[in-house]
Amino acid sequence: MDATALLKLLQLTSPALPVGAYSYSEGLETLVDRELIRSAADLQIWLTESLATGSIGMEAAILIRAQRAIQQGNQPTVIYWNHWLSATRETVELQQQNWQMGRSLLKLLQNLYPDRDWSGWSMQENWNLAIVFALAAELAEIDERTALLGYLHSWASNLVSAGVKLIPLGQTAGQKLLLQLAAPITISVDRSLVLPDDQLFSCSWGLAIASMTHETQYSRLFRS
């Protein structure tokens, strides 16, 4: 990976990327409110299990499929996996989150790469973030494994940041937790790269319940 591609990856995974990731807690706000997550250790377990069996792992596998289809110029397959991913979102809140972030990233890419043919990427389509991130990785010439590492690290960083605010945790505790998530992230990436289509499933009922509850939670810091 050359320096230019690395810098583009860092840009894509930066908290400064204007896609609104900081606005969402993906159910964490409810879990903290119900005192189901009360410490860094609790948050580590939640995020580790999410990477192992939750929908984020399946999302990573779809990202790879989308990037490969983009490499082949196979836009119908890209659209198929985008619709597939939309259909598997557990709640309206999670669906709207991914569509909003995907739309924001696509709009940014269209401004960053104005010379590209954007005819297959209508802003009227509800694009999921993982699909558009795959496009961004391809435009930046970032290989599949590195793109996945960046995507999952960005996801983890966002939720650790939410945990720091909500539990609350100290900044040092948050950084220690990110280091501890390095191994689960790597395992999830390696699994996603070889996961066959007939094993695309997740066990994320806890996330679904937390997200549905968050939609009607009386007091919220994070977007629903």
What attributes characterize this protein structure?
224 residues; mainly alpha; Urease accessory protein UreF; 66% helix; globular
How does the SSE layout of this entry go?
Elements: H1 3-12, H2 28-33, H3 40-53, H4 55-71, H5 75-87, H6 92-112, H7 129-139, H8 144-166, H9 171-180, H10 182-194, H11 205-214
Walk me through this protein's architecture.
- The chain has 224 residues and is mostly helical.
- The protein has a single domain (38-210), classed as Urease accessory protein UreF (Orthogonal Bundle), CATH 1.10.4190.10.
- Helix content is 66%, strand content 0%.
- The chain contains 11 helices and no strands.
- Helix 8 (144-166) packs across helix 10.
- The longest helix is centred in the C-terminal third of the chain and has 23 residues, at 144-166.
- It is globular, with a radius of gyration of 17 Å.
- The protein starts with a helix and ends in a 10-residue tail after the last helix.
CATH architecture: Orthogonal Bundle
Structural class: mainly alpha
Question: What is the CATH class name?
Answer: Mainly Alpha
Radius of gyration: 17 Å
The CATH topology is: Urease accessory protein UreF
